Amino acid sequence: MVSRRLFLGRATAATAAVSAAAVSRVALAALPEAHHQPSAATQPPLLPPDGRPYNPVVTLNGWTLPWRMNHGVKEFHLVAEPVKREMAPGFTARLWGYNGQSPGPTIEVVEGDRVRIFVTNRLPEVTAVHWHGQRLPNGMDGVAGLTQPAIPPGKTFVYEFVAQRPGTFMYHPHADEMVQMAMGLHGLWITHPKGRHPLIDPVDRDFCFLLNAFDIEPGSATPKVMTMLDFNLWAWNSRVFPGIDSLNVRLGDRVRLRVGNLTMTNHPIHLHGHEFMVTGTDGGPVPRTARWPEVTVDIGVGQMRQMDFVADAEGDWAFHCHKSHHTMNAMGHNVPTMIGVNQRDLAQRLGKLIPDYMAMGEHGMHEMAEMEMPLPENTAPMMTGTGPFGAVGMGGMFSVLKVRRGQKAGDYSDPGWYEAPSGTRAYEWTGALPEAPAAPAGAASPAGAGTTGAAATEVQIRKPGGHHQH
Ligand SMILES: [Cu+2]
């Protein structure tokens, strides 16, 4: 809050210095409040205060920007600025965002609203805001150099247009885009239909989030902005599991998921236990005759997808990107595959050179999820999300849809873990086991691979605590 006051003072001074003659005190006083969000927790939906009813969205680990009405215009104030974003408990990144967080706040309006957005630039370089998917006057499209001059640091620009189409949209810079997107500058925009819409069904729970990715060295906090593909943090709204909040709904709720992709690759987003219909894109609602059921929807770069389903199955249902490397956090890629490699001899010899060398991965990598690995400070654990039965073995783009009979209407609080009724959970077979088939004659035992000697086995040595890249 202190920083906001400082900022407003500074912005006012800067504006006054440049154009004291042209801008009256009244106009300066007219700048709407720049609301600031200090928390990375999912905030309660912002109920419409102006008597135009709609069911507000829940921004996963985010919030909706309050506005004010000014002679029939909805006025918002976005501030592009460096932020500290907690991406998971124990791991905070230095990103760029809006109004205190990355992503910026969700802007939520109604079809037909006239909207005026003040954008103040507190970044160290120029920026501009593009309103992805909106029908608007060309000069409001926010492409620096093409449709407007870039917004210099310290300056405030005003965008104004009518939200013509209902749907799921986003906003992001169109100025030094590679850097500004890699730093986390973007946000969601939701336009609710005015009254009943033939292709947009009312829902009880309406969740939204952006897919984003960062490359942050373990132990550091600032993304490497030159990375093109090899990111190590795959995030939903700049959070990684176990830092992503669960999606809590009531049994029988009609649920909508709105997801936009601002990464450099596609993400097949997969929901367990239910089928959904893709009911809309950033191009608008999908005609009913063009919908089909899915359990995974691939969301391409720069695309948005809106999925509807009825949450009719109780439980804790995994909800995640289906690219397996996207459900991991930093430090996975440079680890050599060690499955089937007998490391006993190797570990002994390496131990003489590197005292804290650990032999890992001989039986897969799950053991790493259960091990308390020493990590550099300010590092997201690689895959230590924990459920009621131990390590989930996931990080990154993963969360849980919690469907409960007892969840109250309007209650988004976490109901805890699901307790399956007796007889409905996978269980251990305690009867006789089949004998293992005999190995064909002449086949080398997998354990033999490690006994061929150090000369024949090239091993990349990585020490816990000194991770490079991941
Ligand atoms: Cu993915």
TrEMBL record:
Compartment annotation: Periplasm
The organism of origin for this protein: Pseudaquabacterium inlustre
Record carries keyword Signal: yes
Keywords linked to the UniProt accession: Metal-binding, Oxidoreductase, Signal
Pfam families: Cu-oxidase_2, Cu-oxidase_3
Coiled coil spans: none
Database matches in CDD domains: CuRO_1_2dMco_1 (cd13860), CuRO_D2_2dMcoN_like (cd04202)
Key word Nucleus present: no
Annotated ranges, domain Plastocyanin-like: 87-194, 221-336
Domain of life (superkingdom): Bacteria
Protein's name in the database: Copper oxidase
Signal peptide range: 1-29
